[in-house]
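re: ur question from earlier - yeah i can do the single chain one, its not a big deal. heres the input i used so u can compare w yours
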Amino acid sequence: MSFGDPNNPYGPPPQQPPAAPPAAPGYGYPQAPPSVPPQGYGYPQQPAYPGYPGGNMMPQSMPGLLMTARVFLFIISAVQILGAIAWFYVAAFVSDVGDAADRYSTSSDDPFNTFSDGAGVASGVIVLFALIAAGLAALSITLGVKFSKGGQGVRITTVIYGALGGIVGLLALFAGLDSGLASAILFPLMWVVFAAVITAAPVVPSGTAWFNRPRY
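and the output i got, formated as tokens:
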């Protein structure tokens, strides 16, 4: 009976081949990602960053300078409405005086007739001023209302409107300084300040971002 016989039940057990070592992951294979804690209910979420000029998110509320400019537009519109009413009243008064002079006129060369013709022309010019003031008041109100949903058209119109108002205010301010009267300086000075804020508010980065924001 030979121990070398593999069929011999009394022989030593056959030797097993050595186990192969575990294969190392090959180069380029992705490693198992580290465990990430769940972000479910109850976990604090990362707060969103507020919008800023040039960023991905747009501001969700109107900037403070634009809100100030909006209030100034409404104040200016109130002044313009009062001015239009005053001009209409003066035009009506001048027209009534002209009609009264015309009743006293006896010929075309009469001074009353000349005064009546002049009063009619003056009344028409004053009515024109009243219409301009009323139109500017409507524009001021429209721009102020459109600040909430307006786009580039409202922005550009506001800048031009404020710049033109600032030029008129500067001319009136120079005239008031030349007169030396404090009452002739205060109102033009306030007008220039209002116009400067209205002109600058849509131009600064926060105002530009507001008018460039997406609308849904």
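The chain has a mean pLDDT of 78. not sure if urs matches, ping me
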